[in-house]
Each structure stands twice: as C-alpha cells, then as structure tokens.
Write a structure and sequence with these properties.
The radius of gyration is 23 Å and the shape is globular. The protein has three domains: 176 residues, no CATH class; 155 residues, no CATH class; 145 residues, no CATH class. The N terminus is likely disordered. A hairpin with a 2-residue loop joins strand 4 and strand 5. It is built from 18 helices and twelve strands. By secondary structure, the protein is α+β, with helices and mostly antiparallel strands. The strands form four sheets. Strands 2, 6, 7, 8, 9 and 10 form a six-stranded antiparallel sheet that branches. Strands 1-3 form a two-stranded antiparallel sheet. Bound molecules: adenosine monophosphate and magnesium ion (MG).
C-alpha cells in the first residue's frame, strides 16, 4: 500500500455528507504542545509516520490549532439522555474531529482530539482536559483493546504547556483518540428531537454505508440497522460483564452505533464481585452499577429505536413502534447468549450443555456478598482444573458452598472432549492476570502529574499483554491493599 506524502492525508466524509451535524472549528492555541506518549503500533496501523507525528508540526496538528493538509476539523453535534434526563443539545464541548484515516485493513477510522479548547457546544465548560484523566483514558482504553474488547483507541497523549483549573491547577493535556466513528445514539436523537426526519434518515443512510454496508438499501434497512446495533451492544456489554468492567456513565451520548466502548470517564474495574458496584461520584442511585449495565444498554437501544419510528413507517407509527419494540425486546435473549458464551469460555467449557446457565448462576450465587476478587478468582480457577484447589479455596473464609460448586464444575469439565489441563490453558487465554487495578492506575497518574511518566509506561506495558503472567509483575496482579479504601471516579475531569 502506498504511504501518504503528508503526515495525515485525512478524508472527510462526515464533513462532506452530514452538513448540519457539526460546526467547522479550530482548536485553541496552546503555548507548548508536546507529545508525551505516542502509540507507535496504532500509528503504523493507521499508516501514519510516527517520527513525523513526533515533529513540532505533528504536535501542533495533534493539539488541534494547526490544520493538516486536507483537514476540516469540526465539532460534532449530538443530544443525549444523561442519567435518564434528555438534553437536546450536548455536542463536542471539548473535542474536535480532525478527520478520517483509512487503516491498513481498509477500515475508515476517526481521529478525534479531546481537550482541544472551547467550541460552540461548550456551555459552561472550559473545553480543556488535564493530564491525569487523559492518561487514564489512554491506559484503560488500551487495556480494553488488549483484552479484546471493542473500544476507541489512544493514539497520543499531549501536554499543552498550560495550567488548567480543576480542584487546583493541573497540567493541561489533549488525547488524540481513534474510533471507527463517533456516531452515537445521541447523534440520532439530536435531529429526531427536532422532528427533522429527513436529517435522521440521512444520518441512518450514512451510518449504514459506513458501519453496516451489508444492509444495503433494502426497504427494511433501518429496522435491520437497529438489529445490528442491538447485536453489537449486546456483545459489547456481555464482554464488559465478563471482565468486571464498569463503564460508569452509559448516557446515550456515550453509546456508540459501532459497538465500541466510548468515553472513559468514571469507568473502573470491579475488585470484589458485587453487582451493585459503582465508582462514579455522581451515580448516587447506582443507575450505572455493574449489574445494571445490560438493562441500561437495552434502555439506550430503545432511545435509538424511538428516533427511527418515522423512518420505519411514516404512515403507520403503531406498526413502526411494534416492529421496533420486537427488536428492542430481543436485546435480553441476545445479550444472554453472548454472556453465557463468555462465561462458558471463562469456565473452560467449549461445548454447550443445557445446564450451563444454572452452573454459572450457581457460581455467582456463591460469590455474591463474599468480596472475592473477580479477576483473581477466574484466573485461579485454571489451577483447579490442573488439580490444585488450594489457590481458589484460599479466597473464601466459608468454603462449603465453593467446594460444592467446584465439584459440580469439575464434573461438567469432565464431559468436555479435551483433557482438563488443556481446558485450563484455554481458560488462561480469556481470564486476564492483569487488569487496570484502580490503585495502580492512580499511582501512575499521580506520578505523571508530578512529571514522572515511568510508572505510566510500565503499567501500559503490563496491560498490553493481560493474559500472560510475567515474572516480577506480582504487584500488578493483586487487588488494592485495604488501606486504599473505596475508589471514587469523576466525570468530565
Ligand atoms: P462526557 O461526560 O465527557 O461524556 O461529556 C458530556 C458533555 O459535556 C459533552 O457534551 C462534553 O463535550 C461536555 N464537556 C465535558 N467536559 C467539558 C469541558 N471541560 N468543557 C466543555 N465541555 C465539556
Ligand atoms: Mg461523552
């Protein structure tokens, strides 16, 4: 494939085809844009020249205030339900879409900046981002990618040379992130709420062409688009649940159509298994708690479905609603299929048996309320398959229930075609050793804000190979020491 002559060589189909869905905009000028970390592997995947990106000119473009050849940066418009309340206008208040890149696999990807200054959508905000949260998104999104979860990616983290006011003054920063698009449920809601059906149709057509070209222009393509989004969201949330990930702010403006995880604000990984786990400082009622995520994803899908009513049948909205409702209601069984498949894999089960759901539910009944570390438990289960129950038993004070469950599971494992040790190897390929432990993330961010990037780089390198236990990395495996206390995360910091 031919390398491009300029650094970026952006394409701009969103700008060209979706007038009204954005405002052309430039980033704010900043005193000293500097790339503090570049994802060379991702740059290569995007056919970008990493050394050119690291030049002064590259940093100025990635800071958003100098445009590259062929760039039309823009702030995207969207609406959204935030914690269940509809806000008709949100939009990129501190982000800019620089343009689109075609990656080595021929896939169109957005390059977006977060923290590039105020836009017409900023409302009261300063349009800025700070180093801690930027590196947090970098770490967690890259960890998710390494875990195999569909997600936006981090291309680069920059400092701006500014001090930005938050609790106190913090180093200003920008994240350059990559997504297969930034079209959200909220993008559909923006014009749907204004009754502008032609625009919603236009967006749906663009979305189908970009994400679901196999749907073509058939009469029922919009219904099939909803079905496709449903299936991707169901698969995504099942994947989150299987690794103990809590997104924390599943508003409809943070719910992608592509099925990628978007917006790593208050997210965190659960330690002890507890369906009620919440980290976000503002989620007082646990709307976005770990165990609520599938139901919320379905709720968000219903909000997308509402925007499509006039597209499905302009003359008979009852019929349209009924067709859409059927697809939304199917979220639950589709989700359960994905979730059970993930859980089977975590338990080393390659074949499906009718009793598997009951076996899995039995396990969670045994874990509930016992503060057993979710990640450690599943990883240690492979030791049981290899003949050593002690590491798992050590996680429990009261062992009757887990002993009974282990017997049941081992009997089930015995009905697999392969030997238990080879099933254990398969388990090690899906049950991570390393996740972004909250105390380790915090440690890395605190050091970075203090000008020491080394802990960030080390943690990133650990998280890039989550399934492979390596010597000398024991500190990254364990849950937070008791003294770390309850972890609280924040939105929009
Ligand atoms: P988020 O919680 O990051 O998904 O953001 C929700 C909305 O608030 C989006 O419209 C953001 O663009 C906007 N927003 C968040 N932080 C800022 C900020 N510092 N300045 C301007 N807008 C912001
Ligand atoms: Mg957002």
């Amino acid at each position: 494939m031919k390398e491009r002559s300029d650094i970026f060589g952006f394409e701009n189909t969103y700008a060209a085809e979706l007038e009204g869905f954005y405002v052309p905009w430039r980033g704010a000028s900043v005193p000293e844009p500097r790339i503090v970390h570049l994802n060379r592997a991702l740059a290569d995947e995007l056919r970008l020249d990493a050394d050119a990106l690291l030049s002064d000119a590259g940093a100025r473009v990635l800071a958003g205030f100098e445009t590259a050849d062929g760039t039309t940066p823009l702030a995207q418009a969207y609406a959204g339900h935030q914690f269940g309340n509809f806000v008709p206008q949100l939009g990129d208040g501190r982000a800019l879409l620089l343009g689109e890149l075609i990656d080595r696999n021929g896939v169109r990807r957005d390059l977006q900046l977060k923290g590039s200054g105020r836009t017409p959508f900023s409302r009261g905000g300063d349009g800025k981002a700070t180093l801690g949260p930027v590196l947090r998104e970098y770490l967690i999104s890259e960890a998710m990618h390494a875990l195999g979860v569909p997600t936006t990616r981090a291309l680069a983290a920059l400092t701006t040379g500014e001090q930005v006011r938050r609790q106190g003054l913090e180093p200003g920063a920008i994240l350059a992130r990559v997504a297969s698009s930034h079209i959200r449920v909220g993008t559909f809601q923006f014009f749907a709420a204004r009754g502008e059906t032609a625009r919603v149709r236009h967006l749906a057509d663009y979305t189908i062409a970009r994400h679901f070209p196999e749907l073509g222009e058939a009469d029922d393509c919009y219904l099939r688009m909803l079905r496709a989004v449903r299936d991707r969201q169901a698969a995504l949330v099942a994947h989150w649940m299987s690794i103990g990930f809590v997104h924390g702010v599943m508003n409809t403006d943070n719910t992608t159509i592509s099925g990628e995880t978007l917006d790593y604000g208050p997210c965190a990984f659960m330690d002890g298994y507890d369906r009620g786990t919440v980290f976000s400082s503002i989620d007082h009622y646990g709307r976005y708690a770990y165990g609520n995520q599938p139901a919320i994803a379905q709720w968000n899908l219903a909000r997308l479905a509402e925007t499509l009513v006039p597209l499905i049948d302009p003359d008979d909205s009852d019929r349209a609603v009924s067709l859409l409702t059927t697809e939304v209601e199917a979220f639950r069984p589709v989700y359960l299929d994905h979730w059970l498949a993930r859980m089977r894999a975590k338990l080393g089960l390659a074949i499906a048996e009718a009793g598997d759901l009951d076996l899995v539910n039995g396990l969670f009944g045994t874990l509930e309320g016992r503060d057993v570390d979710f990640t450690v438990f599943f990883r240690r289960l492979a030791a049981v398959a290899r003949g050593d129950r002690a590491p798992v038993r050590a996680l429990f004070q009261e062992r009757t229930a887990i002993d009974a469950w282990l017997e049941r599971w081992l009997a089930r494992l015995g009905r697999e075609g392969e030997s238990a040790p080879s099933r254990a190897d398969a388990m090690d390929r899906v049950n991570p050793v390393y996740i972004p432990r909250n105390h380790k993330v915090q440690e890395a961010l605190d050091a970075a804000v203090d000008s020491d990037l080394e802990p960030f780089r080390r943690l990133l390198s650990v998280l890039e190979r989550p399934f492979e236990r390596r010597k000398g990395l024991e500190e990254f495996e364990a849950r937070a020491p008791d003294g770390f206390g309850r972890y609280t995360t924040y939105c929009g910091t």
